[in-house]
C-alpha cells in the first residue's frame, strides 16, 4: 500500500510541474517594494544618483538614474539574488561575481539569470554603451517586473537583489532592490488553449 500511493500520485505531480514549466503560468506577480542607491564617496566619478519606487502606479515602477562626472571605461559587476521566504528562511537563488559590466549593458552575457535581470531592467529604457560619460549615463525609468520571465524553479517569495559595480577593487556604486509578492486576482491555470 505504501508503494502504490506515490506511484498513483506521479501523474498529478508531473501534470502540475508541466503546467508551470510549459505554460509558465504563475498565481502571483512580483513588484518593487524599494530601490536604493549608494555611492562610494572616494570616487568623484558620480555626480548624481536617484533610485526610487513610484507606488502611485500599478504595478509600482522602479526608477534608476546614475550620472557620471568622469568617463568610466571599465566596469565590473556582481549580482546577488536572494529569495526571502520568511523572516528566518532565506536562500541564495544565484550569485554572479566578476561580471563585465560593459558586456552586461550591451546584453552580451550568456548566463540565463543575468539575461533575465537585463530584460527586466531594460523595460525602463536602455543601458549606455561603454565608456560611460555624462552624456550617456544610466537612466532607467518605469521598470516593471514580469514574474512570467522567471525560471519555473523560482518560488513565490519576496526577493532581495544587490548589484555592485566596481572600478578595480573599489565599489563605485551599489543598487539594492527589495520586491514584494502580489497575488493575481481570478488566476486560472489553463492546461489547453
Structural descriptors:
single chain, 193 residues, alpha+beta, Ganglioside M2 Activator Protein, Chain: A, five-stranded antiparallel β-sheet, three-stranded antiparallel β-sheet, 3 helices, disordered N terminus, disordered C terminus
Protein architecture, described:
The chain is of the alpha+beta class. It has one domain (4-183): Ganglioside M2 Activator Protein, Chain: A. Helices cover 18% and strands 41% of the residues. The protein has 3 helices and 8 strands; from the N terminus they run αβββββααβββ. It has helices at 4-23, 101-105, 112-121; strands at residues 28-39, 46-54, 61-68, 76-84, 90-100, 138-143, 158-167, 170-183. The longest helix is centred in the N-terminal third of the chain and has 20 residues, at 4-23. 20% of the residues are buried.
Structure summary:
This protein is α+β, with helices and mostly antiparallel strands and 193 residues long.
Query: Structural class from helices and strands?
Result: alpha+beta
Distance between the termini: 37 Å
H and E order: HEEEEEHHEEE
User: How helix-rich are the residues, as a percent range?
Assistant: 10-25%
Mean pLDDT: 82
Based on the coordinates given, report the CATH architecture.
Answer: Distorted Sandwich
Low-confidence stretches: 1-24, 189-193
Radius of gyration, in angstroms, nearest whole number: 20 Å
Main-sheet strand order equals: 1-8-7-4-5
Count the strands? 8
> Total number of helical segments?
3
What would the CATH topology be?
A: Ganglioside M2 Activator Protein, Chain: A
Tally of discrete structural domains = 1
**What is the C-level CATH assignment?**
Mainly Beta
Q: Which descriptor suits the 3D outline?
A: globular
Strand content: 35-45%
Largest sheet: 5 strands, antiparallel
Amino acid at each position: 500500500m505504501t508503494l502504490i500511493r506515490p506511484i498513483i500520485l506521479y501523474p498529478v505531480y508531473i501534470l502540475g510541474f508541466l503546467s508551470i514549466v510549459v505554460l509558465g503560468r504563475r498565481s502571483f506577480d512580483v513588484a518593487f517594494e524599494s530601490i536604493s542607491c549608494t555611492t562610494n564617496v572616494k570616487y568623484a566619478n558620480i555626480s548624481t544618483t536617484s533610485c526610487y519606487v513610484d507606488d502611485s502606479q500599478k504595478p509600482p515602477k522602479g526608477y534608476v538614474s546614475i550620472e557620471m562626472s568622469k568617463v568610466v571605461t571599465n566596469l565590473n559587476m556582481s549580482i546577488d539574488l536572494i529569495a526571502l521566504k520568511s523572516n528566518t528562511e532565506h536562500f541564495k537563488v544565484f550569485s554572479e561575481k566578476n561580471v563585465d559590466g560593459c558586456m552586461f549593458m550591451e546584453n552580451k552575457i550568456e548566463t540565463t539569470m543575468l539575461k533575465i535581470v537585463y530584460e527586466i531592467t531594460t523595460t525602463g529604457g536602455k543601458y549606455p554603451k561603454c565608456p560611460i560619460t555624462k552624456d550617456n549615463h544610466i537612466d532607467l525609468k518605469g521598470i516593471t517586473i514580469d514574474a512570467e520571465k522567471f525560471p519555473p524553479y523560482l518560488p513565490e517569495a519576496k526577493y532581495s537583489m544587490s548589484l555592485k559595480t566596481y572600478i578595480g577593487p573599489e565599489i563605485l556604486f551599489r543598487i539594492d532592490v527589495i520586491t514584494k509578492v502580489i497575488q493575481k486576482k481570478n488566476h486560472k491555470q489553463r492546461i489547453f488553449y
